[in-house]
Design goal:
By secondary structure, the protein is of the alpha/beta class. It has two domains: 95-178, Up-down Bundle (Four Helix Bundle (Hemerythrin (Met), subunit A)); 186-384, 3-Layer(aba) Sandwich (Rossmann fold), CATH 3.40.50.300. 47% of the residues lie in helices and 12% in strands. The protein is elongated, with a radius of gyration of 24 Å. The structure holds guanosine-5'-triphosphate (GTP). Part of the signal recognition particle protein translocation system, which is composed of SRP and FtsY.
Length: 395
């Protein structure tokens, strides 16, 4: 009799442990983390970039920031069952759809360029107009002059005025400029430990959206992902990220209070990823202007604190393609502070300024790895040199 009671007890205990494990894996709220040290809030009233939208979902609002208080950290994914989870769009349809969008947004550029190349006579005036068109696409002065010079020489040497041939030459030269030699893969395959991705950039460029979209891409690749909401500047940012994650069953480590130490949240996210044996942990950070030394120091600290726990495998700098050459100075400063390893160029939908890819890569020596082509959840594509150039030149 006593033996059967004992066996029943063991079986019940095993079932309970199993259920608890299932509960954790489903990404429901996990145990709260430890309270952490407080670091001072150091936003200035002029931290918003010019023209930044003054509303939630847009740029971070300076006035939103409360006095910083330490907060318990929480790992959250709202109650979702497998049935209510969204299924990220399959890569094939996503890439075809986004390619068409890239072609559409560069239509003005390609139309005027191809019209110029189709002229019977490509004289000095035409070359000047080609130069202007390339400059208007944000290719940058130096690359534009180099490209036009090379093209002129090739046309002279080959003696070919066939528009198709000139177009083919332009394609070749653009591909060389965009540089197919770069390794554009994300460094997120590190067996035996979670890969750590840190996402940085100025206000409102699309960092949180990018983290959310990228989480979906990774879920579609069967990766276990966890997010860290180290944008503690406004509560809405953590909520926004948690919502992105929960839609695809990805948990988010966040702080309950605005103004908590972002480095602390980042550290806890990485710690949680190690504990859960996740494949990837992505840490979202608050938008900050590159000329704010204190905020840039804070960002450097976020990275250093993470490194106490794990190496940081990717530092993705998110740049807004519509801001054109402004992005270049941002890129330089961010790269000095956190050693950027890849660029995400957002908002390429609706702008024909794709040439900025060349200028950024030349300036930083770092490849564009991903492009954002819309506000939809699956509007993120890997950057592919040839496809990109073809999209630029397609009518
Ligand atoms: N059209 C378009 N909009 C985008 C793209 N990526 C992001 N956005 C929009 O840009 C706005 C800002 O995006 P967020 O992800 O909140 O930007 P953030 O950099 O996290 O902002 P802060 O945390 O305030 O600095 C949102 O309205 C997004 O929907 C894109 O590729 N195309």
């Amino acid at each position: 009799m006593e033996t059967s009671v004992f066996i029943t007890f063991i079986v019940l205990a095993a079932v309970l442990v199993g259920l608890l494990g299932l509960f954790l894996v489903k990404g429901r709220p996990l145990t709260a983390g430890k309270p952490r040290r407080e670091f001072p809030a150091d936003r200035d009233a002029d931290d918003l970039p010019p023209g930044a939208p003054d509303e939630p979902g847009g740029a971070t609002l300076v006035t939103d920031r409360p006095e910083g208080t330490p907060a318990d950290l929480d790992t959250q994914a709202p109650d979702v069952t497998v049935d209510t989870l969204e299924k990220p769009e399959a890569p094939e349809t996503r890439l075809a759809r986004l390619r068409a969008r890239l072609v559409k947004s560069n239509n003005i550029f390609s139309k005027s360029l191809l019209a110029l190349l189709s002229r019977d006579e490509i004289d000095d005036d035409v070359w000047d107009e080609i130069e202007e068109t390339l400059l208007s696409a944000d290719l940058g002065a130096e690359p534009t002059f180099e490209l036009v010079e090379t093209l002129r020489q090739r046309v002279t040497v080959e003696g070919s005025k066939d528009p198709e041939r000139v177009k083919a030459m332009l394609r070749e030269e653009l591909i060389k400029l965009v540089d197919p030699a770069f390794d554009r893969s994300l460094n997120v395959k590190n067996p035996g430990r979670p890969s750590v991705v840190l996402v940085v950039g100025v206000n409102g460029v699309g960092k949180t959206t990018t983290v959310g979209k990228l989480a979906r891409v990774m879920v579609a690749e069967d990766k276990d992902v966890i997010l860290g909401a180290a944008d503690t500047f406004r509560a809405a940012a953590a909520e926004q990220l948690t919502t992105w994650g929960s839609r695809v069953g990805v948990p988010t480590v966040s702080s309950e209070k605005e103004g908590a130490d972002p480095a602390s949240v980042a550290f806890d996210a990485v710690e949680k990823a190690i504990e859960l044996e996740s494949d990837v942990v992505m840490v979202d950070t608050a938008g900050r202007l590159q000329n704010k030394a204190n905020l840039m120091d804070q960002l450097g600290k976020v990275k250093r604190v993470i490194e106490k726990k794990s190496q940081v495998d990717e530092v993705l700098l998110v740049l807004d393609a519509t801001t054109g050459q402004n992005g270049l100075s941002q890129a330089k400063v961010f790269s000095e502070v956190v050693n950027v390893t890849g660029i995400v160029l957002t908002k390429l939908d609706g702008t024909a300024r794709g040439g900025i890819v060349v200028a950024i890569q030349k300036q930083l020596g770092v490849p564009v790895k991903l492009i954002g082509l819309g506000e939809g959840p699956d509007d993120l594509a890997p950057f592919d040199t040839e496809q990109f150039v073809d999209a630029l030149l397609e009518e």
